[in-house]
């Protein structure tokens, strides 16, 4: 079971678009950003789809706008984890801030877990819209990012996100006539587009750094293995170290390592004869 998935697991290299497609297809939603799932309602319904009837959907607030309401959703989710004996701690305080990377990592874990239970096959008998209506409120879920003060503050701090642009639009007419003209509207559109691009670039950088760390850790493990007393003097270990310690990044050390290994093996055959 995937309840304990290491940070270097391939689950954490699933892209943002794939995660959004997974959520939208299964729950019949139209999320366009990872942060829109920050309220915890999506996660609760994913567990409800995986284990029908286990989640008290009438308690899940798909219209959560404040951190308090979001925390209540995550409490429901943690209770479900405890009931199912899933050893996964939910970093609620980080998730409700709406930071894309934190929420992406949790959704990557959730996808891996749900796929481990149902083999990645969608439950055709599950009606997500009907289940969202169980709570009595209007469940046309569109995420809580635009109305959560904490998420707005976070986006302003990180990348002057598009939601802060929305706030500017609502207060713009009070600040002067310039904001009401065509030029002002065009500028706001440009700012919103650039803000989205910056957010996506930051997310891409985060994922690339994680991938870099993953492969660096692999190389470090190989290096440690080659340095063990039992192996460090073996020709194959020395050949591997020639590749690892090659100084010129523009020249492949593979040929040199292969030549060294061939000579070492040839010498060993001669000594054996």
TrEMBL record:
<dbReference type="GO" id="GO:0009652">
    <property type="term" value="P:thigmotropism"/>
</dbReference>
<keyword id="KW-0498">Mitosis</keyword>
<comment type="similarity">
    <text>Belongs to the MAPRE family.</text>
</comment>
<dbReference type="InterPro" id="IPR036872">
    <property type="entry name" value="CH_dom_sf"/>
</dbReference>
<dbReference type="Pfam" id="PF03271">
    <property type="entry name" value="EB1"/>
</dbReference>
<dbReference type="GO" id="GO:0051301">
    <property type="term" value="P:cell division"/>
</dbReference>
<keyword id="KW-0206">Cytoskeleton</keyword>
<keyword id="KW-0963">Cytoplasm</keyword>
<dbReference type="GO" id="GO:0000922">
    <property type="term" value="C:spindle pole"/>
</dbReference>
<dbReference type="InterPro" id="IPR002048">
    <property type="entry name" value="EF_hand_dom"/>
</dbReference>
<feature type="domain" description="Calponin-homology (CH)">
    <location>
        <begin position="13"/>
        <end position="115"/>
    </location>
</feature>
<dbReference type="InterPro" id="IPR036133">
    <property type="entry name" value="EB1_C_sf"/>
</dbReference>
<dbReference type="GO" id="GO:0008017">
    <property type="term" value="F:microtubule binding"/>
</dbReference>
<keyword id="KW-0132">Cell division</keyword>
<dbReference type="InterPro" id="IPR001715">
    <property type="entry name" value="CH_dom"/>
</dbReference>
<protein>
    <recommendedName>
        <fullName>Protein ATEB1 homolog 2</fullName>
    </recommendedName>
</protein>
<feature type="domain" description="EB1 C-terminal">
    <location>
        <begin position="183"/>
        <end position="253"/>
    </location>
</feature>
<keyword id="KW-0131">Cell cycle</keyword>
<dbReference type="GO" id="GO:0005815">
    <property type="term" value="C:microtubule organizing center"/>
</dbReference>
<dbReference type="GO" id="GO:0005509">
    <property type="term" value="F:calcium ion binding"/>
</dbReference>
<dbReference type="InterPro" id="IPR004953">
    <property type="entry name" value="EB1_C"/>
</dbReference>
<dbReference type="GO" id="GO:0001578">
    <property type="term" value="P:microtubule bundle formation"/>
</dbReference>
<dbReference type="GO" id="GO:0009524">
    <property type="term" value="C:phragmoplast"/>
</dbReference>
<dbReference type="InterPro" id="IPR027328">
    <property type="entry name" value="MAPRE"/>
</dbReference>
<dbReference type="Pfam" id="PF00307">
    <property type="entry name" value="CH"/>
</dbReference>
<keyword id="KW-0493">Microtubule</keyword>
<dbReference type="GO" id="GO:0010005">
    <property type="term" value="C:cortical microtubule, transverse to long axis"/>
</dbReference>
<feature type="domain" description="EF-hand">
    <location>
        <begin position="256"/>
        <end position="273"/>
    </location>
</feature>
């Amino acid at each position: 079971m995937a309840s304990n998935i290491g940070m270097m697991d391939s689950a954490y290299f699933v892209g943002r678009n794939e995660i959004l497609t997974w959520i939208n297809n299964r729950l019949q939603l139209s999320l366009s950003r990872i942060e829109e799932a920050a309220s915890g309602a999506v996660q609760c319904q994913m567990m409800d789809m995986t284990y029908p009837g286990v989640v008290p959907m009438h308690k899940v607030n798909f219209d959560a706008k404040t951190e308090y309401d979001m925390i209540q959703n995550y409490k429901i989710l943690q209770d479900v984890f405890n009931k199912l004996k899933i050893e996964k701690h939910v970093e609620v305080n980080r998730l409700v801030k709406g930071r894309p990377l934190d929420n992406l990592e949790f959704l990557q874990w959730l996808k891996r877990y749900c796929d481990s239970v149902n083999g990645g096959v969608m439950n055709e008998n599950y009606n997500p819209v009907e289940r969202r209506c169980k709570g009595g409120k209007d469940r046309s879920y569109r995420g809580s990012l635009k109305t959560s003060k904490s998420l707005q503050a976070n986006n302003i701090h990180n990348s002057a996100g598009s939601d802060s642009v929305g706030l500017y639009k609502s207060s713009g007419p009070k600040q002067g006539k310039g904001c009401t003209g065509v030029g002002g509207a065009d500028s706001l559109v440009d700012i919103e587009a650039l803000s989205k691009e910056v957010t996506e670039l930051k997310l891409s950088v985060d994922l690339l750094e994680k991938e870099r760390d993953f492969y660096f850790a692999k190389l470090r493990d190989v290096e440690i293995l080659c340095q063990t007393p039992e192996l460090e003097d073996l020709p194959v270990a020395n050949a591997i170290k020639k590749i690892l310690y090659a100084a010129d990044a523009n020249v492949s050390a593979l040929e040199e390592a292969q030549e060294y290994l061939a000579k070492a093996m040839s010498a060993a055959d001669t000594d054996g004869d």
